[in-house]
């Protein structure tokens, strides 16, 4: 078997007991052998300010370098006010600058949104996709992944207790692995 593709996973919620972080950790366990999922932390990134482009803070540089090293990106996010959480939008902005030097350029990507509500973060999922189009991230279109009722998804050990959801996410990850292979820079 060849080396698995390095997937940078960005979790939109900073909350310690975040359902989306639990989901990202579960996804890493479900991933096919072709993918190695690793959460890339975003909470340490100060707010993007173009005035800092010439002398960027060390966390910005480390973040940009990590995204550049990744073969692909996976966003796992809740929905805040029908959009993406501010820390995730900030991470996207930090990674996209300075203009013309975006770390996101041509990274195959995918989006999973999850919330306790029935529509599973639909608004955040689609709002995030708008930014990714501009950033030239080829985003997996199907299957779409909106995980509703995420607050009831995990057992005591953090495993996904619902077999149909686990099967769906397995299919999603297998499809994403093929997407990454088709779109990854050689």
UniProtKB/TrEMBL annotation:
One of its GO terms (molecular function) is oxidoreductase activity. GO terms for cellular component: cytosol. Pfam families: FMN_red (PF03358). Residues 7-147 form the NADPH-dependent FMN reductase-like domain. SUPFAM superfamilies: Flavoproteins. PANTHER family: CHROMATE REDUCTASE, NAD(P)H-DEPENDENT FMN REDUCTASE LOT6. This is NAD(P)H-dependent oxidoreductase.
